[in-house]
Each structure stands twice: as C-alpha cells, then as structure tokens.
Amino acid sequence: MLEIKNLKIRINKEDCYDELFFINYLTKYLNKKYSFNPTNIKLTNLSLDARTKELYYLVSAIFKLKNERIKLPKNIFHYHENEDYLYLKNLKKDDIDKKIIICGMGPAGMFNALILRKAGFDVTIIEQGKKVEDRTRDIELLNEKGILNPTSNIQFGEGGAGTFSDGKLTTGINSPYIKYILETFHLFGAHSNITYDALPHIGSDTLKEVIKNFRMKLIDMGVKIYFETKLINIKDHIVITNNEEHNNLYFDELVLATGHSATDIYHLLDQLKIEMSPKNFSVGVRIEHLEKDISNNQYHGDYPNLPAAPYKLVTHLNERSLYSFCMCPGGFVVNSTSDDGRLVTNGMSNQKRDNINSNSALLVGINVEDYYHGSIFDGIKFQQEIEEKAFNKEYPYYYPIQTVGSLLYDLPNQINKIKPTIKPGYYYGKVDDVFPKYVVDTLKEGLINIQKKMDVFKESDAVMTFPETRSSSTIRIERTNNLSTSIANIYAAGEGSGYAGGITSSAVDGIKIALKIMEKYEVK
Q: Who has the most CB within 10 Å: 183, 244, 416, 502?
C-alpha cells in the first residue's frame, strides 16, 4: 500500500463533501499529477481547516498500484500497519481456564471483555443497568414524565454514559489501539467516516444499534452478560450481587469498569482498603446557540454543504480557567441525572447533527483544595450539593435556565429566539443560586473574554442550562505498574478509575488492562 498525506483541497459552497467526493478527487489528482491509476483508495484522515476565510480540507489516504516498486514522489510514502493494531486484530488463542468478571458494560468493560475473550479467558460481564433497548425506554420515561429509574438512565446501563452523549470519539491521548477501536465500532454499524474523520462521532441514534451489535458479538464469542445485576460486595475471589440467579460468582481477576457516577463502588473500595486519592474536576453550565449562527461564525459565512461546526474554547483568567467541553454541533442538552432529588446535564447529537441548536459545556476547574476536608468522598459531596440546589420540588426534574443577557447585563431572564432543548422542561433560575461564588465569577469573566474570540458568544439570548457536574470523576483509584489496584487481582478501568475521560480513552484503558492480565498469565 502507498499513502498520500495532507493533500490540501479548497472548499467551495457548491460541492457535497462526502466520502465519494474525496475518493474521486484523489483518483483524478493522482492520475493527473503522477500518472497513477490508483485502486482501493481508503481515507485515513480528514480534517477541515477553517482558521482563515479560505477553507480547506486536509486529506490523507492509502491506495494500491499495480507496480509499487516505482520511485516515489515527495508526498507519497510506503504505508505500514502498526504492529499493536495488527496484534489486536489477529488475536486468537486457545481457551484459558481463568475466570474474569467485568463489572460495568461501558466502553472500558466492553473492549476489556472483547480482548480477554479473544485471548481465550472465561469472561462474564455484570451490569447494574438494563440492555440498551430497555434503557432507552427508561430515558424516554424520564424525559416525557419526569420518572427516574436510578439504575437505568443516561449514566447507567449497557454502553455506559457515552451512549446517550453523542458518541464522540475524539480524545487527547495518542494510542496504537485507537484505530482498532474505531474500526470495531464501524464493524458493528457506525458510519465509515469515524475511521478517518479528525473529529469522529457516531451519534446517539446510531450508537444504540452499535452497542446492541457489540453485545451480540460478545455473546456469540461466549461472553456471559448479566443485566440488572449490581455488585454489592467482594469477598476473597467471590463477587456478591443483588441478583439471586447470578450471585456468589467466582473470579480469578476482577475488572471494575463502573463509570464515574457509581458512587457506591467507591464506598465499597474504601471498605476494602483499596487506595484512592482525590482529584481535580470541573463544574459548569450547558450553553446553547443556534446551530446556523455557530456554523456561520466558524466558517466565516454560510456553507450549507459543510457539517454543523464545532468549536473548542479556553480562556485563562487570574486564578482559574473557563473552557468548552463535549461540544455538540446540531445537538441537544440532555437530562443526565441518576439520583433522586438531584439534577445533572449533559449534551448529545444524533449522527446527522441536524438539530436547530448547538451546545457545549462551559466548565470551571475545581481543585482538590477547593473541596477536600479529609474524606475521599468530599468531591462527591461537593457535586451533590450543587445538584440538589438545582432541583426544584415544584417542577421535579425540570432544569434551571438563565440567559447570558440575564447573567452579564441584568436583562430579563426570558427565552427569545433560542429555545432550550432540555427535557422534560425548564424553569427560570440563576447560576448564583446553584454554584459557589468563585464558579459564577469565573463564568462571568470567562464569557466576556470568550466574546472577544467568537462574536456569536455576544448573543444575549444564548441559554445556559445547569448544572453540569460530572464531566469526570472526583476520585482516582490508585494503580500499580501492572495497572491493578492495591489488591493484585482487582483492576479499575475507564472513567470511574480516574485515568480516562470519554469513550475512546476509556476503551483504550480497558484494552491496556486486558493486555496486562494476559501478560500476567503469559498469554502472548
């Protein structure tokens, strides 16, 4: 295979920039420039550069020629697959008489199970929530009638929290396993563009089907999956659950992939004397603008054939920073609570990102010294106090909203052209009533600074829905060089461990722990 890297393609308003467009463009370009007749063109990276008024796509791809022993031009290279990727892809071992129990069926747990079962281990997953089809109905019940199921919601259930928060696959880490993860999601039904887009996302509508297909594959491979089965205790090599049918389960190795909102797991680990430490996290609001306004701002004009535009913002103030997080172009603000009497927001988009609004979290960093008073649970208490202040007993599970104009300019706090997307509904509130003063002050000062970077943030009708409190865990579960906890055969993976954030990094973490377990039993 040969590879072309970062070919610059100028964007105009007439063309439709789908996969076929880029393949046809590359075919013509390679033929005209080098007299190549390429076959099997496959995109490997696609990024949109909108930093100036002249917009460009940067495209990389691999392709075949009948004769690849030719002298290569400057920007054509021989392509070599990463060995770690090939190892995971081709992994197939004999059965190993060791039992693995994985607690939690988010991305860390699912990829951990996939690799360990491919390696031949006896793998069981227990998940306190429901399978994704039933979980979807519980979320719809919360959105339509304000009825919460504490174990089946946006935080808990098959696929993890990311299933209903856009399915964004962007990550700040660099890992040889990312390509394997993206191709696995594509294999189970995600659009092929996630394998090459610089900002890949599956979409919450598509991800539900992807997760279901992933589950069916694990079952076909021999993985046992028990839903509505909650971990209650761990004694020696036995997992005790709330499910009489699936209780007292023996394990040689236990992987906890329970997410950052499973607070009862932290209490259990504390009882087991597993080492944990407090960590920094963030809290803030979800801000909504019209999608067309964001896209026109980012693209310096109206480009109807380009995807809904993202943004990424940070402003450093004297003591703290305000930054955007989990930006959802053409998306919705969603009800992500998992506890009675508390409120938590998040954001999501469907695969087409075609909603009228775009939204993003605007977060303020919370340092350990802001909340820590000697208990490992002080950060959770800090989160919960904010979530409880936002809860209005007169309107259960309705969310407080405030406009930017109300916060910054004392304008009336009323909805105009930008309609909140939160379900089941909203009430008019103030961030001052929910957050500590230093968070509110940072939000105000940060918004004013951001307005200098993006004109659309001057929009006084922009709506802030709050609180956003669970962007990451407040606790880090300490790990050894073998990635185990302080108990050698118990591992913590994914967002709940404090070492990952988001779908892709959590999946990578699950794979890394699987490989460490394989190494322990000399599976090569």
A: 502
**Distance separating the N- and C-terminal Cα atoms of the chain:** 28
Phi, psi of 259 (to 5 degrees): 80, 170
3-state secondary structure 405-462: HHHHHCCCCCCCCCCCCCCCCEEECCHHHCCCHHHHHHHHHHHHHHHCCCHHHHCCCC
Q: Yes or no: say if 338 and 344 are a contact pair by the CB < 8 Å rule.
A: yes
CB contact at 8 A, 201 and 194: yes
CB 159 within 8 A of CB 132: yes
Rounded CA gap, 384 and 341, in Å? 10
* Residue found by looking up tokens 């701002």 in the block: 297
Quote the CA–CA distance of 319 and 259 in Å, as a whole number. Answer: 30
Q: What sign does the CA torsion over 334, 338, 340, 345 have?
A: negative
Distance, CA of 139 to CA of 335 (rounded, Å): 9
Is-above-0.85 flag for pTM? yes
- Residues 6+ away with beta carbon under 8 Å from 441: none
* Nearest to 10, CA basis, from 60, 44, 41, 49: 49
pLDDT 10s digits, 332-388: 999 999 999 999 999 999 999 999 999 999 999 999 999 999 999 999 999 999 999
Q: Which amino acid is at 76?
A: I
pLDDT at 405 over 80: yes
Q: Which residues pair with 99 in a beta bridge?
A: 122
